[in-house]
Amino acid sequence: MTGEPRGGRIVVVGASLAGLRAAEALRAKGFAGELTIVGDEPRPPYDRPPLSKQVLLGRVRAQDVGLPRRRAVAARWRLGVSATGLDPSVKRVLLADGDRLRYDRLLIATGTRARPWPHPEQAALDGVLTLRTVDDAGRLADRLDAGPRRVLVIGAGFTGSEIASACRERGLDVTVVERGPAPLVGALGGKLGALAADAQRAHGVDLRCGVTVSELRGTDGRLTGAELSDGGRIDADVAVVALGAVRNTEWLTGSGLAAGSRGVACDAGCRAFDMYGIVTDDVFVAGDVARFPHPLFEYQMLSLEHWGNAVAQAEVAAHNMVSAGPDRRPHLTVPAFWSSQFGLNIKSVGVPTFSDQVMIAQGSPQEGRLVAVYGYRGRVTAAVSVNRAKWLEHYRHLIESGAPFPPGPGAADRPPAPVPVPSDVPDPAALSHGPTVALTGHLPDRRLAVVHRGGPADQHSHDQEQP
Asked: Is 420's pLDDT higher than 90?
């Protein structure tokens, strides 16, 4: 580290949730030096979760989702200009306008962008949209206000499912096309994926699983519909491409950092690795663009697209940027996220994809209220609640303490003597939307199980090959 930890120059690349919270934490921890925040969008940091919920329902205007400031950051803001390169040897960030920013410490918080439709001429059709930015949300809300005949949603991850839910709440006809076997399956597994599929169909969604969109059709530059891989055709005047996210790392090409399509690799203290696996001491990473090891999940490298992770990791990065070695701390927060769609309030703690079994510990799919608990190699690794969130703190403690799976008594209405029974979870590579948690390195056997109330003679198993 160059100079006094609480002085010098710090550059934050990414005027994002993680970038803003890190800047606030830096000032709160006594950083008194020069602070510069770079963002490729022309507006200050804003909150993204409302874009697929309140904004699409017309309850909040897209331009009114700014993030509240916890404290003044006294920063020099460079908005509307993107970073195009990094030269760590001379500690310079290169900007698109030709400027070069000097730094003593750098925070990379560039996040992700929406994965575009892969065929540019089809993506350019009027009516083909994505949803990631304020401008995206404003355009989509305007289209929904105009009352399209049918909306086609391509991809049934959390974003795609929330878009479809908003459309149905508006009374619009919706078709959802998902390459995988069910909505949300890449994030939550087959059992809750089936519950999500039932909820979509019960709310009038034309849900097509196990197929893909092979072509978007248009006339005179306007979208008219889509051709499906099974030979089907959909007439639609709006199509929302919800194929997951692309991590914004291209500007780091040639920088010598361990950066690529999976993000920027860092240690548990948010310090970036170089391409040889050596940790740096002046470049830090936080938010959706970061890949970091977590001891609760066998030190696998996690990439999380979660609001809470961005905040917690930004605060750890800021702390370590202004702290001497012995005072630094790791980012060990248990991942958590939530989604509201089709009358389901879904909340999760842990990493459901890091599992080989799952059981319904409370409630049932038939009730539409449940808690599913996930385990890997006999240890609790995650819990997901559907319309039943009050017990998640209990399961968070089980995850943090490495409690055995299946979990012991403690839930209010846990069924007697539950018996886990394996079921399939697809390889994330087969999904169109991508998981919300990416595990890199060793992938566990992806057998999942559900509670079976019968005896051992009723059990069956299905082993799936290692992906």
From this structure: no
Q: How far apart are CA 260 and CA 264, in angstroms?
A: 7
Residue 149 inside a domain? The answer is yes
- Kindly calculate the radius of gyration of the chain based on its CA atoms and give it in whole angstroms: 23
Q: Are both 120 and 227 inside the same structural domain?
A: yes
Q: Mark whether 351 and 449 lie in a shared domain.
A: yes
3-state secondary structure of 165: helix
Pair 123, 109 in one domain: no
Query: Do 186 and 237 sit in the same domain of this protein?
Result: yes
Q: Would you say the pTM of this structure is higher than 0.85?
A: yes
* pLDDT of amino acid 429: 60
Type of residue found at 39: G
Determine the length of the chain.
Answer: 467
> What confidence tier does 434 reach under pLDDT thresholds 50, 70, 90?
low
Q: Does residue 418 share a domain with residue 302? A: no
Q: How many domains does the chain have?
A: 3
d(CA 399, CA 401): 5
Residue 278: domain span: 9-113+246-327
What is the tens place of the pLDDT at every residue in 387-403? 999 989 999 999 999 99
Q: What angle do CA 217, 218, 220 make, to 5 degrees?
A: 160
Neighbours of 267 (CB within 10 A): 18
Residue 74, pLDDT above cutoff 90: yes
